[in-house]
Amino acid sequence: MTKPTLTREQAWGWEELMVVAAFRYCLGRQTYMPGVCVEWIVKMWPEFSKGNRQLIKRDLEEAFRDDDRQRAAGDKYRTLGHDCDRAEWEKVRALWNQPGKVVE
User: Fold this and answer.
1) Tens of pLDDT along 33-53?
2) Residue 73 CB coordination number (10 Å)
């Protein structure tokens, strides 16, 4: 039996809505979920629409700014979770922060 092939819209929803939903859901999580999401985002980054890459970049940079403020204030609960979760999100951030790397 052959497996069905999904269209892009069937797999990721209308205008890649599931890309945004998965990213935003995982951004506030802790433990294994950020790692799983980060691995998927890094792998699939070139496949995402320009608009979704810009949205992820904008939202993640905002989350890092919030997390930095919370760290400075000594807050126990922070936007990016524990240090291990923040380290995972740094892998996504590296997609546009690498020297010589241009991201739309």
Assistant:
1) 999 999 999 999 999 999 999
2) 8
